[in-house]
Amino acid sequence: MSITCFPANSALGGFQVIVPNVAGLGAYTNLYNRTVDGAGSISPVGNNLILQVNNLGAVGKYIDFTITGSYQSNSGAHTLNLTGHVIRDN
After folding, report:
1. Which pLDDT tens digit goes with each residue over 37-62?
2. Which of 12, 40, 49, 63 would you call most buried, defined as having the most Cβ atoms within 10 angstroms of its Cβ?
């Protein structure tokens, strides 16, 4: 399973982070080489982003997660604090 957060082109600026191989609850740190729109690609150097999956519902149920930390991109250093409560579609 992958978690994709977007809309990347929303009026609020948006972003897209794709995290592959989410197998269950827990922390994932493989968030490099992903794209955050407006900031460019996330480099593995200077990246300490953590995806914490707190609830992983079945298809049609909710996934609850946070993404927190800082990272380097083509446009410099950034901090990201995100909370997600979304319906799983696959």
Report:
1. 555 566 666 678 888 999 999 999 99
2. 49
Per-residue pLDDT of the chain (90 residues; tens, 9 = 90+): 555 555 555 555 556 666 777 889 999 887 655 555 555 566 666 678 888 999 999 999 999 999 898 887 777 788 888 888 888 887
Distances (CA, A) of 23 to 26, 72, 75: 9, 26, 32
CA distances (Å), origin 46, targets 19, 39, 55, 79 = 18, 14, 28, 11
* Measured distance CA(85)–CA(37) in Å, rounded: 21
Question: Among candidates 13, 6, 58, 54, which has minimal Cα distance to 34?
Answer: 6
Rounded Cα distance between 28 and 24, Å, is 10
